[in-house]
Amino acid sequence: MFHKTALSRLSKRLLSFKTYPTPNQNALKFVSPECAISPLENKTFEFGSSLQAVHSPLALKLFKIAGIKSVMIGHDFLTVNKQDHINWANLRPEVTELLDEFLTANKEPTITKELLESEEDSLAANENDTEIVAMIKELIETRIRPAIQDDGGDIEYKAFDEETGTVFLKLQGACKSCSASEDTLKGGIEAMLMHYIEEVREVVQILDPEEEIANKEFERLEQKLKDRKDASPPPPPPSL
Known about the structure:
By secondary structure, the chain is of the alpha+beta class. It has helices at 4-11, 57-62, 88-105, 113-118, 131-150, 181-196, 209-231; strands spanning 18-21, 27-31, 45-47, 68-73, 77-82, 153-161, 166-173, 202-205.
């Protein structure tokens, strides 16, 4: 005869999660076809630390798992960025189990009401938008954003400089730290915006402060290695 606790565990309905790779090897997209993760269909919420996740009980619990770098919560998916030294073989089951327990328990909201009401989608139409800005937002929303979300990321509109024709955007989720993000930005987003909107001449990505620091440190390291290589003496000629 089963113990009562064992029976309750067996009777508990488990969600079926699917994981999908992204262009970023350190990011996985978790999808449950059975339930919505966030109540807002066209808005994602990204958290880079437990401090930023104070309005997301789900993200707070995820940050307690060692190795998680950032979390992005969408309507029907969740993207987890891990640290380089962590193996997905160990991390993926932990994330899946936590998601299953959190969403089936249904005791806490994924995103608090305060954050849902305070956060406005950057691509939403605004009465103060110029005609060009409205066109940029509509093109990103309908043609660019769906493809980026398929890859476990998202995109934020930041600004448009009419004098220089520069569109400022911010990539999120799997896309922001992906090695192919520059190709996505220039070869995909910039090319499409310039093709349909003649006033657009360039697209520039806005980075978080910590991302800017990391990029500068990487550039310094690359330059240091290059200088060391240039300073090394040439190899001796082969002996006859």
